[in-house]
Amino acid sequence: MSKICGVFNFREGPPFEDEINSCLRSLARSPREKAAIWTNKTVGLGRLEKGGKSDFPSDTSFSPETKKNFKIVADAVLTNRAELLRRLDLPSSERTVVSDEQLILKAYEKWGEDCPEQIIGDFAFAVWDERLQKLFCARDHFGGSLFFFRRDAGRFLFASEPKGVLSFPKVEKKFNLKKLGVLLLPEPHTYLTDQSWFENIFPLEAGTAMTIDSGGIKTRRFWRPEIPAKQSVRENEILEAFRELIFEIIGARIDSDPPVVGLLSGGLDSSSIVGVAAQILARKNREIDVLAGVLAERNDPDFSDERYFIDRFAENENVRIHYVSAPEAGPFSGLGEFFTASDSPFITSRHYLYTAFQKEAERNGAETLLDGSFGETGPTFYGTGGFAEMFARFRWIRLWRELRQRKRLYNDSLRYNLRAEVINPVLPQLLVDLKRGKKNARDFLVQPHSLREDLARKLLNEIEDPPLRAERPAPDHRKNQLDEIIFMQKKMSEKASLNFSRSAVEVRYPLLDKRLVEFSLAAPVELKIKNGYSRHLMRAGLDGVLPPEIQWRTTKTPFSPDYVRRFNRQIGGVRNFLAEIKPADPIRQVLDLEKIIQWADLPVQDTERYTTNEKIAREYLPQAIYLIYFLRTFPDFQI
Prior knowledge:
Blueprint: E1 3-9, H1 17-27, E2 33-39, E3 43-50, E4 70-78, H2 81-87, H3 92-95, H4 100-111, E5 121-129, E6 134-139, E7 148-151, E8 155-159, H5 162-166, E9 202-203, E10 208-213, E11 216-221, H6 235-254, E12 261-263, H7 268-282, E13 288-293, H8 307-310, E14 319-324, H9 335-341, H10 351-363, E15 368-370, H11 386-392, H12 396-410, H13 414-426, H14 429-436, H15 453-462, H16 477-493, E16 506-508, H17 514-522, E17 529-530, E18 533-534, H18 536-541, H19 548-551, H20 563-579, H21 593-600, H22 612-631
Parallel strand pairs: 12-13, 12-15, 13-14, 15-16
Antiparallel strand pairs: 1-3, 1-8, 2-3, 4-5, 5-6, 6-10, 7-8, 7-9, 10-11, 17-18
Helix pairs in contact: 6-7, 6-17, 11-13, 20-21
């Protein structure tokens, strides 16, 4: 993967080499990165390539991703290479050596600004078109690669991360106070997704392209998820096509040097990636390294982990499992260093395991981690609304059979499933309102938050149209899945750096591939819920690839099951940290420190329950502490 940056002057300006070099230096995370720069009187472009050696100032030859009329910088891993190679009519001698960056440039030559519709995978790129004197930029369908930009009086700046934009001259690092409004919402990732946490620095939203020329900036959404036509072929043909597709997508991501590593939690999503990758690499007599988070002690007296399921892959000769536990770490570990590299205070409270994963991946020579997260958006969608859909279509015999099987597998009562999964989705909204009283959208807004009340009220007043998902599922599983896909696209749009430490290893999410998500959305409900099993498309589609104990399991141990022990071990230090914040500290202009101190005094016994105290410990208190550390990186909030 690469890091990219650039500048477009709306008027001719001085040479940009020093500015681009400064930007690339800010983005560099490894000594094994080489800079390449190209500039003219209007535009400067820069790229960091891995596998070389840092060299500032850089080589300015910029070949071979340069042609007479076009220049490109790209951060890309394409998963439809075979199709592109065929459609672009490349000679066989070039097909094995052409890079993804070159493919994007060739796609631009052929299709112009329509090229983002033709390429699939993770990509963020900028093409300078010398003929038309314009800069064309695009970011992939789910934001798997990053692109941030800033427009001021005379120039357009962009970089893979906000820190790159901040490295340019005359760009002041200011905190975006508006963004704090997300702390008030139950769905924070649906609000202000077109803004970053830095004032006047914006993410290019997922599935969006942008054109910059002397006339200004134009943006367009080149992909919006929508419900496709239903698949009319037989189930076995759908499963065969699904299997072929997921093998192609995973294969495109593991065919790299240095090799990638996989995360293996023992669940269905991560196991699917590892299982497919293992079979592909076995054909080439290659191995795959996988990282698995486990308890430090195999026979922990208080907690259990996923080691039994993880070890099912030990039977594969080409799978090498590396157990990771980070026994001394917890939700409040290493925050000072962490937030020098982070572009957002919104991180998981299990960040300590991801940091350990990345360090272990780096020790194994890898630069990319394949993570199974977000699979429930596509191939492991739970089929929400599927039971109500069967009822509405008078498929009552099948519905009854599925509910009985569900009771056997998940131990849910028939009465509960009838009420929650069948009756509730089909009830008219009027009856729901009569039953419990009609609620205004704002009644769902305010969550426990760490902000000063006066600031919270001000931010709340600025939220004109609360971005809330449907309160209850529709009796149409495809509509519910589409809602999940749209939500995920918004969430990934604002996602900041794809890593959890200063490591150069990046986390990628192959199950968010556009083709895989669209294929899954088109699949019938009978392949998402079958014989009582939810997530059936992945289970059946990878028969013979997944270990049976994982393929048909219906339970899952929490990620980092000893979180409560780690939390309680560190909470004393958190209390001391909060007690040291002085009355005149600028942090208090934003945060209600007394409330946060009270949160830190709440007893916590089990963070996997959903009581208020446990949710505060699992989400709100760590979020508040992370926000303090993040604010400290801005001049306005430093002591």
